[in-house]
Amino acid sequence: MLKEFLLLIKRFLSPYKKYLASNLLLNFLAQILNVFSFALLIPILQILFKVTESTYTYMTWADGSAVDVIKNNFYYYMTSFIDSKGELWVLVMSGVILAVMTLLKTACYFGSAATLIPLRTGVVRDIRIQVYNKVLKLPLSFFTNERKGDVIARMSSDVGGLENAMTHSLEMLIKNPIAIIVTLVALFAISWKLTLFVFLVMPVMAWVMGIISRNLKRGSKEVQGFWGMLIAQLDETLGGLRIIKAFIAEDKMKKRFADVNNTYRKAVMKMSIRQSCAHPASEFMGTCIIVIVLWGGGYFILGDGSSIDASSFIYYLVLLYNILNPIKDLSKAYYNVPVGMGCWERVNKILSAENPIKEPAVPTPLPSFEQGIEFKNVDFHYIPGNPVLRGINLTVEKGKTIALVGQSGSGKSTLVDLVPRFHDVVGGVITIDGKDIREVPIKDLRSLIGNVNQEAILFNDTFYNNITFGVDNATKEQVIEAAKIANAHDFIMESENGYDTMIGDRGCRLSGGQRQRISIARAILKNPPILILDEATSALDTESERLVQEALERLMKSRTTIAIAHRLSTIKNSDEICVMYEGEIVERGTHEALLAKGGYYKRLNDMQSL
């Protein structure tokens, strides 16, 4: 688990290596100062308060081991200072030295924490950016299998949970191991036997931590899953509020939300209870270590031929007590890591999702549209074994208008979605000017195509920015001209701030016809040679339909158009009408020719006339 977390950090660490290096250096300095500030005090106090009666003479490096020489000469110089300056002066100087070392130590702690902030926040920012960019790249089919609310939850609360885990864990995972290593070196230097004795209980502590950690990861994934369900429920409620009120379904929705909310609460409670036991467990284990050390230390001191004296044992206990806090903090970090990894697994489901719409390895440029679009034996399915399109053969010549009609579910929208590669064909091929669209750069392909859909997709921005969406360097005059062609200029100018008026979330301040005319103005400004109209007037009243239809006719002039329509009156002047039924083209021809056939198209026309 910890290894996975560190690999995750390493994956995003490259731009922040200098912060990590600074953090490591400052943490090492802080821990060295922390250990030796106590090491300097104990011998001074021993001499001052006559704990030892030993006398010391100066030793050279040849007189003993380096540790013995350093220790002896330190005692020698301190004894000399006390004899020459007096005990009070040495005590004052000892306090000053301790204060200075503590100041340096705390400055290093502050510096280490400050250098970690850009790393931690930068990694989380990079993850958010990568998730958002991946969402933009993923095909539409990915989102048909995912709840929108759950995707939002992964990008918000899951990334937030990962950030929280990193906030609490990353500093502890860097600082505390350094503190433990430096202190362990000092402990081994004082008494390697006693330190090895302490290590006997460490596996028990690690085993307890491992059990709690595994449970926390499982609990975190459950909690984040239920949170995604909660957000999805809220999103559905806000999107369907009109229907909920119309069908007096408030009580039903309240119950559904309360059930999901209660399930989420129970999962949070279980995980929080497990998490709450982390500190008591580490506290208890730390106390056990101290007790065991007291037993072992007593044995070593009281036994014959003791290798450690009482003062060294006191210093040993001070260091051991200091090492317990890093161990407890490390255990907290270890408990936070599974929570973060549970969040990461959900986030990574988006980042690792395979995008079947791939750029060609050796792209064939498509700078312009000159000849036409051709569907050759095109097959498509969303689910293997359940075909949506079968054996589609269709040629759309440049400048012509082709209409697609048929019952709902016959494959009309899927067919036009294949042209800009929102999905890729399963069988057959689609060509533009004889070039397989899968061999063309996606940007080149989509720059030739303009879309006007049944539901006008607008953004919570101004009229101007919605019309210029996706079009760089458009002038105000071009925007106004596009709005006039789309029959949108008049109602835009009647708004409070003209083209700078905010239109609300998804254009909620506009009528259906107004929204549709803004989307047409956007397509006019893009000026694409290929136009796809997906039931652009089916949801409008008669007056709005007339205005939108006029705008569409202006838009369709000199453009190659594929139009889906339920209202046959809007496409009767098309160059060719293709009638689709259960994924196949069953009839094709002009409006008059299809009526004369007396087939499926005539039945559709008669039903609408009736």
SSE blueprint and pairings:
Elements: H1 2-11, H2 17-48, H3 66-85, H4 87-137, H5 140-144, H6 148-190, H7 192-199, H8 202-239, H9 241-246, H10 250-276, H11 278-302, H12 310-351, E1 372-383, E2 386-397, E3 401-406, H13 412-417, E4 427-432, E5 435-436, H14 442-447, E6 449-453, H15 463-467, H16 476-485, H17 489-493, H18 512-526, E7 530-534, H19 542-556, E8 560-564, E9 576-581, E10 584-589, H20 591-597, H21 600-609
Parallel strand pairs: 3-8, 3-9, 6-7, 7-8
Antiparallel strand pairs: 1-2, 1-4, 4-5, 9-10
Report what the structure shows.
The chain is an alpha/beta fold and 610 residues long. The chain has two domains: 2-351, ABC transporter type 1, transmembrane domain (ABC transporter transmembrane region fold); 372-609, Rossmann fold (3-Layer(aba) Sandwich). The chain contains 21 helices and ten strands. The strands form two sheets. It has a six-stranded mixed beta sheet. A four-stranded antiparallel beta sheet has the order 2-1-4-5, with no helix packed on it. Helix 2 (17-48) packs antiparallel against helix 4, helix 4 (87-137) runs parallel beside helix 12 (310-351) and helix 18 runs parallel beside helix 19 (542-556). The longest helix is centred in the N-terminal third of the chain and has 51 residues, at 87-137. The two termini are 68 Å apart.
